[in-house]
From TrEMBL:
<comment type="similarity">
    <text>Belongs to the short-chain dehydrogenases/reductases (SDR) family.</text>
</comment>
<dbReference type="GO" id="GO:0016614">
    <property type="term" value="F:oxidoreductase activity, acting on CH-OH group of donors"/>
</dbReference>
<keyword id="KW-0560">Oxidoreductase</keyword>
<protein>
    <submittedName>
        <fullName>NAD(P)-dependent oxidoreductase</fullName>
    </submittedName>
</protein>
<dbReference type="InterPro" id="IPR036291">
    <property type="entry name" value="NAD(P)-bd_dom_sf"/>
</dbReference>
<dbReference type="GO" id="GO:0008206">
    <property type="term" value="P:bile acid metabolic process"/>
</dbReference>
<dbReference type="InterPro" id="IPR002347">
    <property type="entry name" value="SDR_fam"/>
</dbReference>
<feature type="compositionally biased region" description="Low complexity">
    <location>
        <begin position="1"/>
        <end position="12"/>
    </location>
</feature>
<feature type="region of interest" description="Disordered">
    <location>
        <begin position="1"/>
        <end position="45"/>
    </location>
</feature>
<dbReference type="Pfam" id="PF13561">
    <property type="entry name" value="adh_short_C2"/>
</dbReference>
<dbReference type="InterPro" id="IPR020904">
    <property type="entry name" value="Sc_DH/Rdtase_CS"/>
</dbReference>
<feature type="compositionally biased region" description="Pro residues">
    <location>
        <begin position="13"/>
        <end position="22"/>
    </location>
</feature>
Length: 300
């Protein structure tokens, strides 16, 4: 039997089982908490094989305490990066992410605050550079959503809050990071499938994610001469604290079942794209969006 024909080794980790349905659940707070979700989102894939692709790098990740942000933090640590995570007030989730990063042998600092505040964004970047010495990768991932059935139900306060977190926060954090980014640095933004196909109950959220796509494309051209690449990831339905904190309990049970793969994604299925976009593997990719959405065809 040739080497190519050898059966898989019995000691190789098996791919995780991906849930296709969930128990009814709802959290009466935003941001939601990952620690109380059932099941806990999958953040650390047992089959991912790191290769030291981010050795010696420093990454700042907004929304890094849970969901996709936690998975990015873990996979970056696996690849050799030290990590700073920004979160609003989910202290328990943030400390768990810190523990998981440090378990991989990397440094992690946690920074609590509101990315919608430009003064805080400046403080977060300064703290990152002071404690971790530099900044190579900025991941703009923090977001919030507030479903409403009609446009009339979206209050001025909600509209402003959603835009402040989802798009103003990206501007503020990127502006604060720019003096510390250098040739070869990467900026990665989290967009959404809703930016391309819309969402009838997420009018303001979808609008902000459309803005993220346009910002990504425009900033990539603006920074090309500096050798700083800007790209984005547009996840489809993903099992994160946003879901039980913004959906009715019965809605949660079938979350994500309407895509071709018939299930929602898990955070650890998103994270490798953020590694790719942060490394020289994607050296000829700029101003682009990777679509990880369970098979939904998006022409954009």
């Amino acid at each position: 039997m040739t080497q190519q024909q050898q059966p898989p080794s019995s000691n190789q980790p098996l791919p995780p089982v991906r849930p296709t349905s969930f128990p009814p659940q709802h959290q009466d707070r935003q941001p939601g908490l990952q620690a109380v979700m059932n099941p806990i989102p999958q953040s650390d894939s047992p089959v991912y094989r790191p290769a030291g692709k981010l050795e010696g790098k420093v990454a700042l990740i907004s929304g890094g305490d849970s969901g996709i942000g936690r998975a990015i933090s873990i996979i970056y640590a696996k690849e050799g990066a030290d990590v700073a995570i920004i979160y609003l007030n989910e202290d328990e989730d943030a400390q768990e992410t810190k523990r998981l990063v440090e378990e991989k042998g990397r440094r992690c600092i946690t920074i609590a605050g509101d990315v919608g505040d430009p003064a805080f964004c400046l403080k977060a970047v300064v703290q990152t550079v002071k404690q971790l010495s530099k900044l190579d990768i900025l991941v703009n991932n923090a977001a919030e959503q507030h479903p409403q059935k009609t446009i009339e139900q979206i209050t001025p306060a909600q509209l402003e809050r959603t835009f402040k977190t989802n798009i103003f926060g990206i501007f503020y954090l990127t502006q604060a990071a720019m003096p510390h980014l250098h040739k070869g640095a990467a900026i990665i933004n989290t967009a959404s499938v809703t930016a391309y196909r819309g969402s009838p109950n997420l009018l303001d959220y979808s609008a902000t994610k459309g803005a993220v796509v346009s910002f990504t494309r425009s900033l990539s051209m603006n920074l090309a001469d500096k050798g700083i690449r800007v790209n984005a990831v547009a996840p489809g339905p993903v099992w994160t604290p946003l879901i039980p904190s913004t959906s009715d309990a019965p809605q949660v049970t079938t979350f994500g079942s309407d895509v071709p793969l018939k299930r929602c994604g898990q955070p650890d299925e998103m994270a490798p794209a953020y590694v790719y976009l942060a490394t020289e593997d994607s050296s000829y990719m700029n101003g682009q969006v990777l679509h990880i959405n369970g098979g939904e065809i998006i022409n954009g």
